[in-house]
Design a protein that fits this description.
By secondary structure, the protein is α/β, with parallel strands linked by helices. Helix content is 30%, strand content 22%. It contains 5 helices and 8 strands. An 8-stranded mixed β-sheet has the order 1-2-4-3-5-6-7-8, with helices on both faces. β1 and β2 form a beta hairpin. The two termini are 28 Å apart. It comes from Variovorax paradoxus.
Length: 210
């Protein structure tokens, strides 16, 4: 994101995992691991929504970790329809956030993967924050969030999202009684609305730190 961004290479199940890490000015509250959109549709850790999430976490006092799924950028392996990508995310968590407060976030396909990570980690880790943006609920079976996690979760979707219809996310959230924050007129990539997206995430993080 800037000249202070640290570039890291990890070893995962499929080989190298390309990672970038940004630190807050103060002692970190914890580590936020952020997953990017669909690899087969040009999704990478440099996506603007992913970078916006990382900036919001850093501003909120969190270490922000972004990574490329297998087969993307310098990460080795091939796309695995979410199964291997979940293992990639868990590998990043295990190696860069082995203990302490944890935040899990993702955009689009990355939100689908992040929901799976929450399901796997909730019982064993201190998951403080969950941020899911543009959740890819139309073509994927997105894991429900634990009921106890709802007050720590922020689910954001664009009203005019033409990639993942708002109705698909509502159909996922409704059985859980999980609130969804809707950005009026917002498309899938939140063009012209990234500052608003950042402010919503920042407000959520401040509330969680209170």
């Amino acid at each position: 994101m800037n000249s202070q961004t640290e570039k890291i290479t990890l070893q995962g199940a499929a080989g190298r995992i390309e990672v970038q890490r940004d630190q807050p000015a103060e002692t970190p509250r914890g580590v936020a691991v952020i997953a990017h959109p669909h690899p087969l549709f040009s999704g990478t850790m440099d996506n603007k929504v992913v970078q916006t999430l990382a900036r919001a976490f850093v501003a909120g006092g969190w270490t922000a970790v972004r990574f490329n799924f297998r087969g993307v950028g310098a990460s080795e392996g091939v796309h695995d329809e979410g199964r291997g990508e979940l293992e990639d995310m868990l590998d990043v968590v295990r190696q860069l956030a082995p203990e302490g407060p944890l935040a899990i976030a993702g955009f689009s396909f990355g939100a689908f993967v992040a929901s799976g990570a929450v399901s796997r980690l909730w019982a064993e880790r201190d998951v403080r924050q969950i941020v899911l943006v543009g959740t890819a609920a139309a073509r994927n079976v997105v894991a429900p969030l634990p009921v106890e996690a709802h007050e720590r979760a922020l689910v954001i979707h664009g009203e005019a999202d033409d990639t993942v219809a708002l109705s698909a996310v509502m159909d996922w959230a409704r059985p859980q009684s999980l609130p969804v924050t809707v950005i009026p007129g917002g498309g899938h990539f939140f063009h012209g609305q990234l500052p608003l997206l950042k402010s919503l995430v920042a407000r959520h993080l401040r509330a969680g730190a209170a």
